[in-house]
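Sample entry (173 residues):
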Amino acid sequence: MILRTSSATRPISLLLSTALAAATLTGCALQELARDCEGTDDRVKEMAALDILDSRPEGATIARGFEEVDAGCWADSGDVVVYASRTYAFPGTRADVTAYYQTAVVRDGWIPDPEALPGELCFTREGMALWIVFLTAERLEEEGHGSRPDLTTGAGYSVSIDSYVDSGAETSC
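Predicted structure, serialized as tokens:
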């Protein structure tokens, strides 16, 4: 007995075999995209407890509304990053803040990142990147913090640390 297939069966077979091959070839990529923050709680707590987040120049105060260290994890396109940051209001100048942290972070074991752009305050240590970012009215608005004269007069700034989780990539600014 001869089994006959209709001409409609061949395109369906071809489509199914193509889909199977694509799924096999992209399985690893899909697995990477599915990575999330599960299991990062201890790492987030470690980062939030880093002493450098509480180090600040004399006169700097923890900004109102930022009393707790902002720490957590985010995942995007297969990258999983843990972070911690603290925001300060400082009545002095950006130069005062810069001078303070250029000494304090190095004393704490951070290394200035040679790839940082001029004017950027970015340091690395043990797979982490530390940034000192000065706040502007525009930046605060973008981040949903509205008008904050206490952070845009003088030198309002944040100290932020981030680290990739299990990426194998070298951390840099």
